[in-house]
Amino acid sequence: MIRCRKSALTLSYSRLRRRLLIACCIFGLIVMINAVMVNPLQAKAQQVGGNSFFDRLGPNDPLFFASDGYGNGSPFINAWKSDHVTFPDHHMELTLDNQPNFGFQYTSGEYRTHGFYGYGIYAVRMKPNNQHGVISSFFTFAGPFDAPSGATICTPQQQPGSQQGVHHNEIDIEFLNKDNGPVDAQGQPIPQMQVNFYTNDDAFKQRHEFLVPLPFNPADAYHMYGFAWTQTGIAWFVDGRIVHRVANTAADPTPNDGSTTGLDCSHTTQRILMNLWGDDGSSPGIIGFGGTFNYAQSAAQKKAPMHADYSWVGYLGFQGDLDKAVSSFSSGN
After folding, report:
1. How far apart are CA 182 and CA 273, in angstroms?
2. Burial of residue 83, with CB atoms counted within 10 A of its CB: 0-12 exposed, 13-18 middle, 19 or more buried
3. Across 6-10, 107-111, 229-233, 270-274, least confident range
4. Which of 12, 228, 238, 269 sits a CA distance of 20 to 30 A from 139?
5. How does strand 306-317 pair with strand 120-127?
């Protein structure tokens, strides 16, 4: 069940919206400058200051790498292979097809950062896929298999299981194509944007999902999506407009990047990831999450292989006040 949280961030809604709009305008300005002045094939990983970056997503990118040679397991129906991350026409494309690999019937692409990042503004310009049972994503993640260097690893008592790392922390933007979701004039699914987060939840028991109503079909054109992760909570935005926010409270905390406590089992920075995957329908709850995956049906409609497209990713790291972060980002210091 989708729960709508009406709690506000400590920072007032109007101030946070105004500052996010400024940051989004800066991201957009950089896009325009690079489109005019820099060959897109050469504009990679443009460092903005500190560990902040604006990245046009090209091959051999120093900040990112493609997942390769394995699969996550249920509910993911596919394996990951690096050749399913390609860069046609000056953008990144993730492809999901029916090539069997590594014990999976299907294969797709995932792109992730080498590094881990903390509080700040995360933004992407993307166009998701629109086939039932297919999820396109932009998110941050840390967990048992993705622990930042220098973090104190959980003990077996803190994190039972075969792999100890850090607790599962995640902030999500996902585009779902539910069976009962909206469709366009041609009867094709209109992807629904869902936002979510997990805090120290290795069992995936928390339920913070929220469906964001959009005034457009996200599969038709590129739009900018992102979120601000702060000490006081998280705010998600679309094209510079805040669409959902949650507060960091003692009863229901948002992830902590360890900037005040030091990196440890429960307080950690996170990787940035983008992936495209099929929902295996392993349970009624999973089917309700992403829809029923039917590759043959999509192929018959000439909608397979499936693709999700990304033109750039940006991250503005900061501690504390957003005004300081925007000033640092715009000046490049």
Report:
1. 27
2. exposed
3. 6-10
4. 12
5. antiparallel
Tokens 């998600």 locate to 236
Can you point out the beta strands (E) in 69-177? Answer: 70-71, 78-80, 85-86, 92-96, 106-108, 110-113, 120-127, 134-142, 169-176
Task: Give 277's strand partners.
Answer: 135
Look at residue 258 and give its three-state secondary structure.
coil
Token readout for 126 is 């993307």
Neighbouring CB atoms inside 10 A of 264's CB total: 16
CA gap 230, 249 in Å, rounded: 12
DSSP track, 86-113: E-GGGSEEEEEBS--BTTBSEEE-EEEE
Please say whether the beta carbons of 176 and 194 come within 8 A.
Answer: yes
Angle, helices 322-331/13-37, rounded to nearest 10 degrees: 10
> pLDDT higher for 273 or 3?
273
Q: How many CB atoms lie within 10 A of CB 94?
A: 27
| Residues assigned a catalytic role | 174
Q: Angle at the Cα of 235 (from 232 to 241), degrees rounded to 5?
A: 145
pLDDT in tens, 210-261: 999 999 999 999 999 999 999 999 999 999 899 999 999 999 999 999 998 8
- Sorted by sequence, the CB contacts under 8 Å of residue 299 that are 6+ apart come out as 98
DSSP 263-278: S-SSS--BEEEEEEEE
Record the pTM. Answer: 0.85
Domains parsed from the chain with CATH numbers: 13-234+246-331 (2.60.120.200)
What pairing do the DSSP bridges indicate for beta strands 106-108 and 78-80?
A: parallel
Q: Tell me: the pLDDT tens digits for 57-82?
A: 999 999 999 999 999 999 999 999 99
276: nearest Cα among 235, 323, 238, 308: 308
Average pLDDT, the chain: 84
